Amino acid sequence: SLRAKDELIASVSHELRTPLAAVIGFAQVLRDQDSGLSPEERKEMIRLIAEEGLDLSNIVDDLLVAAKAQAGGLTVAQVPVDLRAQTAQVLEVWNQQDAGHIELIGSSARAKGDPARVRQILRNLISNALKYGGDKIRIDLSDDGAIALVRVCDNGPGITEHQLQHIFEPYQRANQDPGLTASLGLGLTISRYLARLMDGDLTYRHQAGESIFELTLPTAA
User: Fold this and answer.
1) Which residues contact 29 (CB under 8 A, 6 or more apart)?
2) For the chain, what is the total number of helices (H) and then of strands (E)?
3) What pLDDT does residue 99 have?
4) Pairwise CA distance, residues 4 & 2, whole Å
5) Each residue's pLDDT tens digit, 96-147
6) Each residue of 174-194: pLDDT tens digit?
7) What residues have CB less than 8 Å from 142, skipping those under 6 apart?
């Protein structure tokens, strides 16, 4: 409907404006030779520019998937995927400070799917854990011969029963803390859509003080 399109445009405009404003602001400060920044402060601003740029890239990726899905033109590959290698590749884009909060457990698990789409799902899940989770994040990989699993776990506040009913719907945030940067609200929706397109699924549960997002995919033959 027209109203839904207007809401989409407003949401996209807001979510893109926030990281864009940060990138422009930090870049302008760095450009100012009289800013008096220390080398450490300059390094931190460069890190933040890269981080906000990554957020922008993730938002654009999700929007492209949503557009292709609506047009019925999205297809995925079904090839062997080394989940540990794909996870390690995704983790490389975060700085050492953030990566230090993440523990990767499990030997190589092989799934069948689309490597680029698997990485997109992992980026969304890890990004959410870093933004909304606690100070400890664990990624568990396993493969029982029929199903390959990736569990992204964190010790954050979790999701309420009301939020749980809506977290996989568009434009919902798992954590409504106004002090946290909002996400576009497409990340989890797109991630579940992609998982199911690859004959897998994406689910959530809270167990033993942990928030757990579980990606399941068929194993590679």
Assistant:
1) 35, 37, 45
2) 7, 7
3) 67
4) 5
5) 667 678 999 987 799 999 999 999 999 999 988 888 887 889 999 999 889 9
6) 554 433 334 446 788 889 999
7) 106, 109, 148, 149, 151
Distance CA 208, CA 204 (A): 13
Non-local (6+) Cβ contacts of 4 within 8 A are none
Question: Which residue has 């399109």 as its token pair?
Answer: 5
Q: Which pLDDT belongs to residue 7?
A: 63
Q: Which amino acid is at 31?
A: R
Q: Cα(196)–Cα(65) distance, rounded to whole angstroms?
A: 14
State the DSSP code for 219: B
Structure-token match 């884009």, residue found: 93
**Residues 156/138, Cβ–Cβ less than 8 Å:** no
Say if pTM beats, i.e. exceeds, 0.85: no
List the domains of the chain with CATH numbers: 2-71 (1.10.287.130), 79-218 (3.30.565.10)
Between the ranges 60-64, 153-157, 213-217, where is the mean pLDDT highest? 213-217
Residue 55 to residue 40: CA distance in whole angstroms: 23
CA distance 164 to 71: 28
DSSP H helical segments within the chain, as ranges? 2-31, 39-71, 83-91, 96-99, 115-132, 161-164, 187-197
Task: Give the integer Cα–Cα distance in Å for 190 and 167.
Answer: 11
Tokens of 109: 């698990």
Distance CA 53, CA 44 (A): 14
